[in-house]
Amino acid sequence: MNLLIIDDHQLFAEGLKFLFESIDTSIHTTHVKDATEALDYLQNNASPDLILLDINLPGINGFSLMKKFQVINIWSPVLIISAMESPATAQLAIESGALGFISKSSSGTTLISAIQTVLNGDTYLPKALSPAASNDTSEARGIETAHITKRQKEILHLLSQGLLNKQIANELGISANTVKAHLYEVFRALKVNNRTAAVKAAFQQGLISEV
What we know:
Blueprint (H helix, E strand, L loop, with lengths): L1 E5 L3 H14 L4 E5 L2 H10 L5 E4 L8 H10 L6 E5 L4 H9 L4 E4 L4 H12 L15 H9 L6 H11 L4 H8 L3 H15 L4 H10 L7
Parallel strand pairs: 1-2, 1-3, 3-4, 4-5
Helix pairs in contact: 7-9, 7-10, 8-9, 9-10
């Protein structure tokens, strides 16, 4: 597995690299310090399996950098690792395209859990940073009809059958990264943060049918 760390704090990045490679020697970690180095790496190498991104970077910040990823057709899942710990920042990270947000003060165990969640195609937000959803909001989500493409409906249908990202990719003849990108758009359209909630919302809105 290839991980790309984008963080201007050398010591922190080296700590992450040591953590990952001590857990699994097959994990290859690359570290870059800013947006320029990140874009240069991504345009000249295969897309990483996961991008670990800090928000506060020299020059272009992490949110702006994620927009540039899409411009150059990089759809690797992004996990934001930040010293900023407000629910508003975490939610903005998800809205900007990240599949997860975690504080730099988190334990190694929590970080590994967040990475596993994101690699499975789900969104990771610590409970303390998750925006509280009222019952009224949940009901409103069931009434709204989201714009979902035909391909995304196919992915939702396979998701409802319990298939994982790689299985969906094989079934549809597309890459796992493409599945993840579609899921990101689906989560945003349905205003949900995980696969289970996406399937539930899709059933409620009649986007897919129960079999």
